[in-house]
Design brief:
- This protein has helices at 2-15, 22-27, 30-39, 46-56, 63-77, 80-88, 100-134, 139-160.
- Mean pLDDT is 87; it is low at 1-18.
- The chain has eight helices and no strands.
- By secondary structure, it is an all-alpha fold.
- Helices cover 72% and strands 0% of the residues.
Length: 170
């Protein structure tokens, strides 16, 4: 019984998801909606979701106003400093920026994010091995776990060693 209720509940919850409510459609300042979407680096196709939601409410999305706001918002989003932040936070990038410096910094930030993710994964693996070692495994298993732990600690140490990247423009 529970096996049928959970998927049914999940399906119902997903079907109820909308990007914009009928009330929001009626009162939307399309320039401001687009501006916020651009400022947050959202997928530019999100306007299609708004349009679909608003048609259901009998409202037509003002795509031109939204696009103008989106374009202005992306000017701020696409700053080089923000590129690093977006990457370091592990946020999705939808290709809305034409600035090469934004893209370079996004890649550097993304590398930092992935490095931190890997360190967290290594910490979990090391903790798991420590748990197994505390349970007094047999001699061969203990030797294998200790070697694996040494390799993981070495990798973690390498990831914690700072590297320096410089972007100089002349």
């Amino acid at each position: 019984m529970k096996r049928t209720i959970i998927p049914l509940t999940l399906l119902t919850a997903l079907a109820g998801c909308t990007s914009m409510s009928p009330e929001e459609c009626k009162t939307a300042n399309w320039y401001q909606v687009g501006y916020q979407d651009g400022l947050n680096g959202h997928n530019p196709n999100i306007i299609n979701n708004y349009a679909e939601d608003c048609v259901e409410a009998g409202i037509s999305a003002d795509r031109a106003e939204w696009q103008q706001g989106f374009d202005h918002g992306t000017i701020i989003y696409c700053s080089p400093d923000n590129g690093y932040s977006v990457g370091a936070e592990g946020r999705e990038y939808y290709g809305v920026c034409s600035s090469n410096l934004f893209l370079e910094n996004y890649q550097l930030g993304r590398q930092e994010y992935e490095r931190k993710q890997r360190i967290e994964e290594l910490d979990r693996q090391i903790a798991d091995i420590d748990f197994q070692l505390n349970n007094k495994p047999d001699k061969d298993t203990k030797k294998y776990l200790e070697e694996k732990r040494r390799m993981l600690v070495r990798e973690r140490s390498d990831l914690l060693t700072p590297t320096y990247n410089f972007n100089l423009r002349f």
